[in-house]
Amino acid sequence: MKRLIVIGTAVLALGLGVPASGQTVDLKTLQSAKITLERALDIAEKHGKPISARFEIEDGKLQLSVYTAKGGKFFEVIVDHKSGKVAKATPITEGEDLKAAQAQNAAMHRAKRSLEAATKKAVKDNAGSRAVSVVPSIDAGRAVVAVELAGTKGAQTVSESLQ
Fold first, then answer.
1. CA–CA dist 34, 82 (Å, integer)
2. H-helix or E-strand containing 132?
3. What's residue 12's pLDDT?
4. Are 78 and 87 in contact (CB under 8 A)?
5. Cβ neighbours for 1, distance < 8 A, ≥ 6 positions apart
6. Domain 20-161 belongs to what topology?
7. Rounded CA gap, 138 and 153, in Å?
8. Closest to 94 in 3D by CA, of 79, 70, 73, 77
C-alpha cells in the first residue's frame, strides 16, 4: 500500500509539472549536503516549531526547506545545506503552501514526538539511507509522519508514529 502511495504521488507530481523529490533528490545528490534533514529541523527551531522539511531541487540547485509555525504564523526557512546557516525565512501567507502548513501544524498539535526524533528513528532503522523529506499528517485520529528516504537501494517512504 505504501508503495502505491509513493508511486501515485510521483505520478501526480509529474503530471502537475512538479518534480517528485524521490526522483530528483537521490543519495548521490545528497552527497553535497553536509547538513542532514534532522539537523536542519533543529537549526530552524529559532524560527518556530518545525512542522515539515524537505530537500528539493529549486532552480536546478539543491535546497533544504523547513516549514515552521510560530504564534499562529507559518514560515519557510531555507537552511544552507553546506554551512547550516539560515539563508532566509519567508512568511507563508497564501495558496497551497499555506494549506499544507495548516494541515501539518494540525498534525503536530497531536504529536508527542518531534519530527527530528521520528526522522532519526527512520534513518537508524534503514541503515545507509538519508532523509529527503518528513511530512506529518493525521491518520485515524493519530499523528504520523511520512519520512522519505534515499539509500543505496533507492528511494522509499516509511511511516513513523508521532505518539
1. 5
2. strand 129-139
3. 33
4. yes
5. none
6. Nuclear Transport Factor 2; Chain: A, (3.10.450)
7. 29
8. 73
Assigned C-alpha cell, 48? 518556530
Whether this model's pTM surpasses 0.90:
no
142: how many CB neighbours lie within 10 A of its CB?
A: 13
**Which string of DSSP letters, residue by residue, matches 33-79?**
--S-HHHHHHHHGGGSEEEEEEEEEETTEEEEEEEEEETTEEEEEEE
- Hey, is 123 helix, strand or coil? helix
Mean pLDDT by 10 residues, the chain (163 residues): 39 34 71 96 96 95 97 97 97 97 97 96 95 97 97 92 94
pLDDT value, residue 55: 98
Secondary structure (3-state) at 114: coil
Place of cell 518534480: 19
> What grid cell was written down for 19?
518534480
C-alpha cell recorded at residue 154: 533507492
Would you state the pLDDT for residue 15?
31
CA distances in angstroms from 156 to 11, 68, 72, 123, listed in the order given? 15, 25, 33, 11
Query: CA–CA distance from 160 to each of 16, 57, 78, 79, 107 (Å)?
Result: 28, 25, 24, 24, 13
